[in-house]
Give the backbone structure.
Amino acid sequence: MANLFYLLGFFFIIHEISILGNPKGYLKKLRLLKREEESEDGYESESGRRIVKTSWELLNDEEKAVVRLTFFSLFYFAWLVIGCCFSGQWIGFVSLTAFGFAIGYIRKKFDKSTRKSLSIIKFDAFISVLALAFLIINHFHNII
């Protein structure tokens, strides 16, 4: 079961590599998510009532991509929390989680500057790939 848990880490490495390859697209999704949180565009007013868009078909492609990113990020976070609680490499998982929170805080400070945000996203993705690879290789080192 532990092997399956660490094999899930390959999906997260692939995700981080895709972010490293297209940081502008990732930044666009993050900004769209932030804009949706701050505005009430998710509601349609109809005769004084507020109706929430609930159907997947009502969303455009960008909104669907943001929903997918949100669910994948929650799954990634749950994987990290499980690794923090139950893994023998809990220090690595705690470090990666703390690094993610710190980078998120730093990126919010430089959100207005696209160039700085892209640099922070690239740095985050690079370090995350290295940390995830270390955790996975460290688990499988006796097999390889």
Q: What stands out?
A: The longest strand covers residues 43-46.
